[in-house]
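Predict the holo structure. Ligand: adenosine-5'-diphosphate.
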Amino acid sequence: MRTPILLDRPPELVALDRLGWLQAPSWQPWRTALRALLADPLASTDADTDAVQLYTQCTARTTWPTRRHKEGWFLVGRRGGKTLAMSKLAVALACFTDVTPYLAPGEVATVMLLAADRKQARIAYRYVLGLLHEEPALAVLIVGDPTRELIRLRNRTVIEIHTADYRSTRGYTLLACLADEAAFWSREHQANPDVEIINAFRPGLLHPVLAARRHLHRVRPEGRALHRLHGPLRPGA
Ligand SMILES: Nc1ncnc2c1ncn2[C@@H]1O[C@H](COP(=O)(O)OP(=O)(O)O)[C@@H](O)[C@H]1O
Ligand SMILES: [Mg+2]
C-alpha cells in the first residue's frame, strides 16, 4: 500500500529546507522570519525555542503564529539579505503552489517583483533566475526562454518584474508580490504615492491555502518538482 502524502509543514518551507537555501548559520534569522510568516509548526527542540525568542525579540509578539500571514513587512538594514531572502521565498511560492484551482481558463498567477524602478526590480529578477537555474528540479519548470522581465513556469505561474506604479499593477491575479525597498517608494508624489500602489495590487492577491495533497507529485508539475527534491514525502517531513 502506498503511504499517503501528508504535509503538515508549509510546502514552500519544506522545499526551501530541502534546497538548503536557508541552511547556513547566517540564514537562520531569515529562516525564522519565513517560518513565522508561513506559520511553520514548531518542534520541542532547543533550535525552535531560540526561534521563538528571536521572533519575540523582533516582533514583540509572544505567541508563534498558527495561520500563515497574508502580508509581512521587514525592516532590515542594507545588505541584510532582504532581496535575496524574498527572492528565495518568491521562487518557492512560484514553484510549489498549486494555483490551478484558483484560475479561469487561460489565466495565469503572477509573482510580481516590484521595485521603485525597473533597474531595482532586476536585482530580484537576477536572484530569482539564478536560483531557478541553479537547481535542475526547478529549472525544468521554466517554459521557453525567460525574457528580460518575465519567467513563465509550467504550473501556470509567471514571475515578472514591475515598476512601483499603481496603474501597471492593477488587473493581475497575484500569487505574491515582493515589494522591494517599499520604504523608499515615493510618498509625496501625488500621482503615484506608495500607499496607492499597495492598494492597487492588494485586491489582486490570491491567498490559496496550501493544504496537504495526496499524490501531488503525480498530478502537477510543481508536485513532481517537490517530489524530485524530497523523495517520498512523509507526515511532518
Ligand atoms: N544571511 C545572509 N547570509 C549570507 N549572505 C547574505 C545574507 N544576507 C545577505 N547576504 C549577501 O549580501 C548581499 C546583499 O544581499 P541582498 O539581499 O541584495 O541585500 P539587501 O536587499 O538587504 O540590501 C548578497 O551578496 C547576499 O548573498
Ligand atoms: Mg535589496
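The chain has one domain: 11-230. Strands lie at 109-115, 142-143, 150-153, 157-163, 174-179.
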